[in-house]
Specification:
The chain has seven helices and four strands. By secondary structure, the protein is α+β, with helices and mostly antiparallel strands. The radius of gyration is 18 Å and the shape is globular.
Length: 197
């Protein structure tokens, strides 16, 4: 099922067509595609080139997938159980220059965006989520103290919305919406819509 964004202006097809389905096929993802996806993340920009992102990846049927699935809240487990790949993003808090890297979460977010766009280019779909236990992740994966589990994502091939159960079908078929430009882009002062004429 495709749900291209209804945009006010023409934007790149990868951005226009990307969305976050919950219906995943169990079809295995080619390892070459996974490597390209993580290569895209590797080349994301970061402050002072710190590259604070780290990832734990699990493929359906392996121990890492099972542990990642165990970290998720039940709501996410209910729809993500068919995803071929689960990924956890982790951020390194400290800077190589000493002290805290104040923008490590921002930088990890950029690497996740690169994953998302490369996945779309590979014919795959991604659904990112915050509903998981960071404490359980630390315990199950022995994550060092300086590293923070930030988000998870399901990745794979999209299945039919009707493969989902209950309210998830309705959520899958719901139209995509975004706030209007004037609520997001300002000039002069906060809240004052940028005209950009």
């Amino acid at each position: 099922m495709k749900k291209p964004a209804i945009t006010n202006l023409d934007i790149h097809p990868i951005i226009k067509n990307r969305w976050s389905p919950r219906s995943f096929s169990e079809k295995k993802v080619d390892p070459a595609k996974l490597r390209r996806i993580f290569e895209a993340a590797r080349w994301a920009p970061s402050s002072f080139n710190e590259q604070p992102w780290r990832f734990i990846v699990g493929e359906k049927g392996d121990d890492s997938w099972d542990k990642l699935y165990e970290c998720m809240v039940k709501f996410n487990q209910d729809w993500a159980k068919s995803a071929a790949v689960l990924i956890m993003s982790i951020g390194k808090q400290s800077s190589s220059k000493g002290g805290t890297n104040k923008v490590y979460q921002y930088d990890v977010g950029q690497s996740m965006a690169y994953i998302t766009f490369q996945a779309e280019a590979e014919g795959l779909v991604v659904h990112q989520m915050g509903g998981f236990s960071a404490d359980k992740a630390r315990e199950l994966f022995s994550i060092p103290e300086d590293y923070v589990p930030l988000t998870m994502m399901a990745l794979g091939y999209q299945d039919s919305p009707d493969s989902l159960e209950g309210d998830f079908v309705k959520m899958e078929k719901a139209p995509r919406v975004r706030k209007p430009f004037g609520e997001l882009v300002f000039s002069g002062s906060f809240g004052n819509e940028a005209r950009l004429d």
